[in-house]
Amino acid sequence: MDKLLEIKDLTVNFGEKCVIDNVNVSIFAGRVTALVGESGSGKTLTALASLNLLPEAALIKKGEVLFRGQDMLKISETEIRKIRGKDISMVFQEPFTALNPVMRVRDQIKEMLVIHKNIKKDELDLRLKELFSIVKLSEDTGFRYPHELSGGMCQRVMIAMALSCNPDILIMDEPTTALDVPVQKEILDLVRQIQEENNFGILFITHDFSVVNLMADDVHVMKEGIIVESGEKQDVLSAPKHEYTRHLIDCIPRLGDERKRFPIQD
Amino acid sequence: MVEVDSIKKYFVKRNGFFTRDEKVVKAVDGVSFSIKKGETFGLAGGSGCGKSTLAKLITGILKPDEGTVSLNGAVDIVFQDPFGSLNPRMTIQEIVGEALYIRGKDKEEIEKRVRDSLRMVKLSDSNTLTKYPHQFSGGERQRIAIARALIHRPEFIVLDEPVSSLDVSIQAGILNLLKDLQQEHSITYLFISHDLRVVEFMSDVVGIMKEGSLVEVASAKDIYNSPKHEYTRHLIASIPTI
């Protein structure tokens, strides 16, 4: 397997409080690595660390984030800006807040291409056309504003934007949490399909094990800054070793559920 | 207990600030159903199908253009977003007890009933009362919203996507709580969600809503075992299995 990025022994503090504790996660080409945990478990911070986007209050105690032989935590801001959005791009949870409300969505995607790639106007139009077809949006959609689109359409725009520069790695932070179940399935199927064609690696952040089952190859379960269990999806789902993993799986509602209550304590 | 008879609500939408182009949106287009006392009617459908408008019509926040809603007793509502639905400048005591202040109850009685309500949702820490919403997590805030709905002991509560913005593990706790409350106090629920799994878990009878209409109504078991409408089958097919 082709390892694209490696988070090694990462430890991050907020003041005295340790929020990421000795975390090891790798992202591979053509695979989806899922980081699963509840809100506050440190999963988003881990993703932000891999882009060197940690908030100022965060203190990196230990560890490195290796991408193409460089430590992302040590290279200069100018260098990392060339990587962010181009080689490693990110899709956030709330498509409405992530998009600029006063700019047509096509122009927002175009902006990415103009900043990161020195391409000519006719090439630019071609690439935009291609991107809209990849995320299965009509080209007319591009001339509309975010508020005129549904949540699912906005998330497709975000994905088009993230893919615009052919990244090696796509980080997706709860990309479908704000969407309806049917739209969630459409978006996740679409992402996997695009991944098969382009072979980039995905770091997928979620709190929902049913989404893990749909998306992931490798799974890391995170609790209070610590990875409590790691493994391939099948193994983790069929035989969870850690109590907390089992708890998260137990909380998933199932169709045709015989249970009257969820087997959890108050 | 609850009887909804062919209610309709249309909205007129202008296509832009300067145009006279108008479009009629049939948010709720002739919906009828009834809920038995102590039971849960679950409403599932995608966003924009009219389920929240229906919730507002039933609680009287909106008036229907046509049709009637008849309720036996008090009704209250719990909304989706526990961050937007609680006034950030009010303490928990003020939020949960507001309906009683408005009715001019005396202070001691209000405090006692607020404590009772909070105990029912298992938030009985003694200094909860003087805290503000931002000091609580999403799940705790939703418990506060439920406590507020419980304050005047409604017999019927409309739950409009009460768990969709919560983590699955927090969601499970809230769903358990709602079931317990229903059993202890035989409250009737209208439970609305886009997630058919959650609706099926909570409900006795399930209605599938699409473009303002109920396309299928059946018992929770039948919806899953023998879905009749194509849209119901589509909803089921989109659910991630585990």
Structural features:
heterodimer, A: 266 residues, alpha/beta, Rossmann fold, 6-stranded mixed β-sheet, 4-stranded antiparallel β-sheet, B: 242 residues, 3-stranded antiparallel β-sheet, 8 helices, 27% strand, globular
Give your account of this protein's structure.
The complex is a heterodimer of chains A (266) and B (242). Chain A has helices at residues 43-50, 77-83, 95-98, 105-116, 121-134, 151-163, 181-198, 209-215, 233-238, 243-250, and strands at residues 3-14, 17-28, 32-36, 58-67, 70-71, 88-91, 169-173, 201-206, 218-223, 226-232. Chain A is 36% helix and 26% strand. The model of chain A has no long low-confidence stretch (mean pLDDT 93). Chain A is α/β, with parallel strands linked by helices and 266 residues long. In chain A, 44% of the residues are buried. In chain A, the strands form two sheets. Chain A has a six-stranded mixed β-sheet with strand order 6-7-8-3-9-10, with helices on both faces. Chain A has a single domain (3-250), classed as 3-Layer(aba) Sandwich (Rossmann fold), CATH 3.40.50.300. Chain B is of the alpha/beta class and 242 residues long. Chain B has two domains: 1-73 and 156-242, P-loop containing nucleotide triphosphate hydrolases (Rossmann fold, 3-Layer(aba) Sandwich); 85-154, no CATH class. Chain B is 36% helix and 27% strand. Chain B has helices spanning 51-59, 92-102, 107-120, 138-150, 168-185, 196-202, 220-225, 230-237; strands at 2-14, 22-35, 40-44, 66-71, 75-78, 156-160, 188-193, 205-210, 213-219. The two termini of chain B are 37 Å apart. Chain A binds chain B through residues 38-40, 150-151, 180-186, 207-211, 213-214, 237, 247-257, 259-262, 264, 266, and chain B through 46-48, 122, 137-138, 167-173, 175-177, 179, 194-198, 200-201, 224-225, 234-236, 238-242.
